[in-house]
Amino acid sequence: MVPRGMNPFPSAPADDLVQPFQIEGANLRGRLIRLGPVVDAVLTRHNYPEPVATLLGEALTLCATLASALKFEGVFTLQTKGDGPVSTLVVDYRSPGDLRGYASFDAAKLAAAEQRGGAPVPRLLGAGHLAFTVDQGPDTERYQGIVALEGATLADCAHAYFRQSEQLEAGIRIAVRRDRGKWRAGGLMLQRLPPEKLQDDEAMDDAWRRALTFLGTVKDIELTDVGLSASELLFRLFQEDGVRVFDTHGLTGNCRCSVERLTSVLSSFSTAELAVMAVDGAIAVTCEFCNRHYNIDPATVHLGTP
Q1: Does the model's pTM come out above 0.85?
Q2: Where are the domains of the chain?
Q3: Is 177 helix (H, G, I), strand (E, B) or coil?
Q4: Which of 12, 77, 168, 172 fits 92 for a cystine, CB–CB 3.0-4.6 Å?
């Protein structure tokens, strides 16, 4: 536990990590996410326009923030579908910490939307839904939660999901920015746990409101500052209430595409369909997530019914 008023944290910066923490005596736990090279690699592979890159960076950060708070083995997916210029965002987190994501957008609609201005969700995503899916493999039932795209930001949509679907009290802050040509992102999430026996409900309510007030003071630069470590930021926010930090775990930007996976997908097509796909004797495939290009020989594909 961190004694009140004493900063025991190292000042060395750290990136691409999840920092779990809890506030002592208040039934509050949280996650602080710091993304550097991982988010920069995802956003620069496709050369997205800045508004699209920023939105996808927020989705990556939100996905890591929510998924890292769960105990599961598998894939957590965050997906949006809307009628705005950015028709689709898809981000997934594979335990213990692999992130990837992509965005589909209409350039002409995006230019018109930027002229109009407004909050990012209604301006870029429009009307639609945000879905969270947890898939732990073929022998388990998938869990999915859906909420309407209502609010100014993706964090607002997540707040609405917690209120409507989970009856959980949570606060989330997300920040994405470009610093000297490199993308950076950060996320901070607080969760209120059920009260323990003999705890003063009024005191717990006060502690929750106080923590949310501190969360609201966090600046974007603090969440994304390469020179400010995760533990230092937590001390800066919650030192008066006593904050306990736990071991961090890393986040990586690994895509799961491979020749084997793509060949398996192509095996559902008939011989005739594969022949139509092939150009100069190969089927060209580009991964939407990592933008890697593959040339697959139709002869290596397990063919379906002609």
Answers
A1: yes
A2: 17-250, 259-300
A3: strand
A4: 77
